């Protein structure tokens, strides 16, 4: 099937300024990043072992779904990977590679 | 009853042994308390712990309802959806859909929900509803929900989901009889409806994997129900966040993890000493008593040298086993395991291991068998095989007796580095050697056998919980019981066998040298001896290694018996001292090196055969571990001899 809502967005707009309300890939977020998931799609760099569609479904089943609140709570020691995120009211650990397809609309900063 | 029979039209006329029994399956997200509920329902003692993926097999139990109806309860591995990915989730899917040969789908599904974490389980409940089995929602952990001031409108929830909702506290056995009653009522209502409408029993045969769009749709529905029925907690749990700030800190987190492991092994080695001395004294007294009462002869030799020296030398290690399990069980119950997996993911990933491999590997400190079973949570077959292959390199509790015996006999009891015991450090070093070699072997396996990218790593981190002391004590006692039962069965029978081989046939009249040289054991030992001579093993050590295949600890008992038979009574008391007398330091170190790697456990190989469904992997495991063991012992022995320890 073709994913309806999941056109992968290029991980461009990093949060460059404090007041920018932008779209970032969860994979590029730093500790403290807060926002709402805008889209969940196949990661552009999805590994060969898993079809992109499969990864998308796994993310969805874990609760990475459009509209969910995310916050990056912790980062790993080596290469800031994996990350631990608060996802609505649960905590989930995942690698940045898997987080690539999760686009987050960051909260506007005061 | 075959699955195809369930598609036949008309009301079911169940046949077979379980015809009158109700079949109920527990389904839910990982760590929602299914097994705790199963134990509360059936009085079983299946393993319960605070991380996802504890249960990896189906387990059946029986409960008799208040009305006297027999109900077969099925505990299943946790899952986020019926779209199973890993072997444990396949078990759950097949059980729910009745796909397994010779099995019918359950009459009622109990969907177990963690009341404090409802979002994902609501979607699963909707998925289950679509399968068409009658369902009941067990709203578990309502004690925690109450503490957090979480308002759940259960009537509304029940109406929205179209299934009864029963609040439970599995660990305190609250709400259990209400749950049983609701399940029974549900089954009866369903049977009545079936009989009335004459519609076939729905068996999930129309079930297909949901697509991404369908998952999104169910999610929105679940979200709507959640908003309608649940008010956010008034006193949310802040402890978990605060503890994670420290325990998942990039620097402190790793330091604390290493500290925990270090303290754990130090405690195992040093903390158990006084009790172990007591047990040794007890067995000595027993042996002396028997020696006084019984006349000199074969029977006395069997009891004193075979049974008491052999079994006693293993039972002494009970306190160490208990301390190790106390640590592991506490870590599991608090909720630390998933954190450790998070911290070590990159390191393990560098060696080509899947992030989820950490928990199976840590379980292997207890015993490789549950560790290998726990790899079922790993979805990718290759990742899973890699983990299985290296799991026995993690130092299992059966190696503790061997390590402790040799270290106490050969490593001086000195303090180094400001108060750390040198013996404890060597002990920790052996654990570290096992862990590092597991990483190295995993890395090599990836390079040699396959080079695929690794699988997604997505893992829920559970909220911390204060361990329930009764549960902890019960589990530690259970492990002690298992250890003693092994000592009383496998080890005891091996000891009798070894004693027999060591004493029969007796010394021919007029022959020179000790009697054991003429026994079967002596003959076997002398025959294989040359093979192991290059790594510094005497024939007595060789004799101890062979029965060590049945259970690693047996090697200690076997050494006890070999030296007791050949050395007379006084040496049976202090095995360590007689080893220190008979072995060179180089041989002792080589023996330790051998034990880090050697595949000295037939049951592990049997489990690998079962889990991989072929002889290929146990053979590869046996081959590579024996090779590594020989190589390591050879290097250690030669180096030690060259340094003058021969
Ligand atoms: N406070 C409280 N804790 C509970 C309750 N039920 C279960 N627990 C705890 O929750 C954790 C998970 O329980 P398990 O029964 O192992 O969960 P499971 O659903 O079988 O988990 P998997 O087998 O991994 O899918 C354990 O630490 C239990 O002690 C409850 O009603 N109240
Ligand atoms: Mg379980």
Largest interface, with counts of residues having CB < 8 Å to the other chain, equals: A-B, 41 and 50 residues
Q: Termini of chain B, distance in Å?
A: 69 Å
- The CATH class assignment of chain A is Mainly Beta
Estimate the helix proportion of chain A, in percent.
10-25%
List the helices and strands and how they pair.
The complex is a heterodimer of chains A (110) and B (646).
Chain A lengths: L22 E3 L8 E7 L11 H10 L7 E7 L7 E5 L2 E5 L1 H4 L2 E5 L4
Antiparallel strand pairs in A: 1-6, 2-3, 2-6, 3-4, 4-5
Chain B lengths: L21 E7 L5 H9 L16 E6 L5 E6 L11 H11 L10 E7 L4 H13 L3 E6 L1 H6 L3 E2 L1 H8 L3 E3 L8 H22 L14 H18 E2 L7 H9 L4 H20 L1 H21 L4 H18 L2 H17 L2 H14 L7 H6 L4 H7 L6 H10 L9 H11 L4 E2 L3 E2 H27 L9 E4 L7 H35 L16 H13 L6 H7 L8 H14 L1 H5 L1 H8 L2 H13 L4 H11 L3 H27 L4
Parallel strand pairs in B: 1-3, 1-4, 4-5, 5-7
Antiparallel strand pairs in B: 2-3, 6-8, 9-10
Helix pairs in contact in B: 3-7, 5-7, 9-12, 9-18, 10-11, 11-19, 11-22, 12-19, 15-26, 16-18, 17-18, 17-24, 17-25, 18-25, 19-22, 20-21, 21-22, 25-27, 26-27
